[in-house]
Amino acid sequence: MNPSLPEGCSIPGVSFQLVEAAQNSYYQITSERCLRTLNSSMWGGGLSTHRILMNRQVDKSYMCEDPLTEMHEFMKEKGIPAGHTAAMLTAARVQDFGFSEHGSDFGLTVCAWATVGLSNKARAGRELRQDQLYPGTINIIVLVDGELTDAAMVNAVITATEAKAAALQDLGITLGTVPDASATGTTTDAVLIAATQRGPAFRYAGTSTELGYRIGRTVYASVVASTKAYLRWQSRIR
């Protein structure tokens, strides 16, 4: 278990742990204070409060009739309090996560972590075959040291998603079809927004706002970093 955070997350009271194992590697971001969260996955999903944000790696063939119970059992085994945790699953290598931080002169800090797997690339609005619906996943966690309204949390999801799509486009990630088109993500992407609810307050998080600008920059950079790590890994195993 490595408690250090590459490049350093400067938000007070926040720590990072990467746990590597033969199976079920994961990382968790732990806050000393409760975080306001908006999570698109089922484990701690929707609007809520949590102290731990977790991204867990599973096998690409992962299938479970009751994934909620299975995840809670996993957390219990690892000593992670399920009631305080918002979690995600991915088939991507969590060791290849990307991290970025952006701060301002008036106390706003935004951190973003991303894990990228591109085996099931997709473009929103394009026709998709049923057999492409399996876990590969781009998972994004955004942590804001600020106070966000519910509307700002939702707006943050939009901005993070736009930044993810922009990163994939700029990296030349395409569907590999004829005619070809840029991928906007994968079929099972997830976004988790968390806020400390202290410091500067925000009602909006669009790209023209201070908050949205920094969310865009951090998500873009973290997706680029993890995508490049994924592509390097793929080139080694081929």
The count of helical stretches stands at 3
pLDDT below 50 for ≥5 consecutive residues: which ranges? 1-7
Identify the CATH architecture. Answer: 4-Layer Sandwich
**CATH fold naming:** L-amino peptidase D-ALA esterase/amidase
Beta-strand content bin: 25-35%
Please give the largest β-sheet: 8 strands, mixed
As an assembly, this protein is single chain
Overall pLDDT metric: 91
N-to-C span: 29 Å
Class by SSE composition = alpha/beta
Number of strands: 12
Order of helices and strands: EEEHEEEEEEHEEEH
In the CATH scheme, the class would be Alpha Beta
How many structural domains can be distinguished in the coordinates? 1
Rg is 17 Å
Helix content: 25-40%
Given the C-alpha coordinates, what overall shape results?
Answer: globular
How would you describe this structure in keywords?
3 helices; L-amino peptidase D-ALA esterase/amidase; disordered N terminus; alpha/beta; 8-stranded mixed beta sheet; globular; 31% strand; two-stranded antiparallel sheet; 238 residues
Explain what you see.
The protein is of the alpha/beta class. The model is unreliable at 1-7 (pLDDT under 50). The protein contains three helices and twelve strands; from the N terminus they run βββαββββββαβββα.
Outline of the structure:
By secondary structure, the chain is of the alpha/beta class. Helix content is 26%, strand content 31%. The protein has a single domain (14-237), classed as L-amino peptidase D-ALA esterase/amidase (4-Layer Sandwich).
